[in-house]
């Protein structure tokens, strides 16, 4: 079930106290309306009743989607926690478990898993799109502000590479990526019981380690 609590908070702008509602966990089967609030980020958005300033609070939260069988843990740091007692029963039920360090990773991961595809393949597609963007002289690495998964239709992913003043979309077939992942299973192995952080830093680390530059 979804769990929320009231927290005393001091506005970072006017310094006056008020109470906010914080969700520690969300279950989309029991509270489907909260799914949209998580995807939009509204569940983390608050407004001061005194100065009426809006701001975001990225509090740690567990997001469970039983229909698509995945669990996300939004937390900027795992702080060395042992989550095996929580994770193992879910893994046995066929769940995919991930930690997300940022709200952007969190919302993107919801889209990826709802689309029913591998987030490892998505990170590989994003990495390949970034490299192609740079190699084709579309921009410099420091110009890139984000590389984002947008959608997957008919087995083709759409990846957006964005800079401050422009963006470029890449269409990446899913099947060749999945073949590469299967062929190099040891490199791309993911242990769901550890609630791993599968993001751009993770995929870059795989290639830097392979090149001996880690």
Structural notes for this entry:
This protein folds into 2 domains: 3-102, no CATH class; 119-210, no CATH class. Helix content is 31%, strand content 30%. The chain has helices spanning 33-40, 84-92, 103-114, 119-135, 174-183, 200-210, and strands spanning 3-10, 17-27, 45-47, 54-56, 61-65, 70-74, 96-100, 144-153, 156-163, 167-173. The model has no long low-confidence stretch (mean pLDDT 92).
What is the structure about, briefly put?
The protein is of the alpha+beta class.
What's the topology here?
Elements: E1 3-10, E2 17-27, H1 33-40, E3 45-47, E4 54-56, E5 61-65, E6 70-74, H2 84-92, E7 96-100, H3 103-114, H4 119-135, E8 144-153, E9 156-163, E10 167-173, H5 174-183, H6 200-210
Parallel strand pairs: 2-5, 6-7
Antiparallel strand pairs: 1-2, 3-4, 5-6, 8-9, 9-10
Structural class: alpha+beta
Number of helices: 6
| Estimated share of beta-strand residues | 25-35%
Biggest β-sheet description:
5 strands, mixed
Helix content: 25-40%
Approximate shape = globular
- Write out the strand line-up for the largest beta sheet, numbering strands in chain order: 1-2-5-6-7
Instruction: Write the element-wise H/E pattern from the N-terminal end onward.
Output: EEHEEEEHEHHEEEHH
Number of E-state strands: 10
Name the average pLDDT. 92
Q: Distance between termini? A: 42 Å
Segments where pLDDT lies below 50 for 5+ residues? none
Number of structural domains: 2
Radius of gyration: 19 Å
What oligomeric state is this?
single chain
